[in-house]
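Explain this fold:

***
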Amino acid sequence: MNNSNRIAKWVGMLYIIGTISGILSVVFTGSILGSTDLFMTVSANENHVILGVFFILIMGISLGMVAVIIYPIAKKYNETLALGYVVFRGALENFTYIAYAISLLLLVVFSKEYVNTSLDGTSFQSMCNILLDSGEQIQSLSTIIFSVGALMLYYLLYQAKLIPKWLSSWGLIAAIIYLVTGVFALFGPTLTVLMMPLAIQEMVMAVWLIIVGFNSTAKVTDKQTISSL
């Protein structure tokens, strides 16, 4: 197995690990965060929230590693886009995951204090609302950052022909829809259904990379060579 195929398999597996971890984080926290009696529910399900945070971090690490692992191949075709992908997906997106994880852990702390003390619940409720609103804004920002990184990657893959054009084109279109969804989520509810095309595309691409790998006939053109110097 050559180095290119080995990298492709790792990228595919990391995409799958990241996606599964993201789904599990929602499984453990989704119904809890949607509760009408949030403090009591969070306090009673503290371990579920902590597990949700754990899977959020696993998701962030896995998807961030994709950008790092694919960089040696991507920079041969367009170093600017390859580096941009590392910055957006490897650094900025992970920062938003960490910030969101911290907001959930703070929610656990405040919930325990609320249950274990006899203080006025108004201040706790205000803090709870702040944490929830902050978490939603962080998630929207994460969606935008992720989308920009995805656009860089899929445009590079389309140019370099490292994967079939139908697959990279699907990624480009889905990433644009994902970006628009993230922008609108800053001002209203998130339309999760609009995120599905990119989620499905990533899983299809992950399987493709594991089974087929990158296109071994992709060539670095003179223009691409110059851009990577």
User: Anything to note?
Assistant: Confidence is low (pLDDT under 50) at residues 222-229. The two ends are 28 Å apart (CA to CA). DSSP finds eight helices and no strands in the chain. Residues 3-214 form one domain.
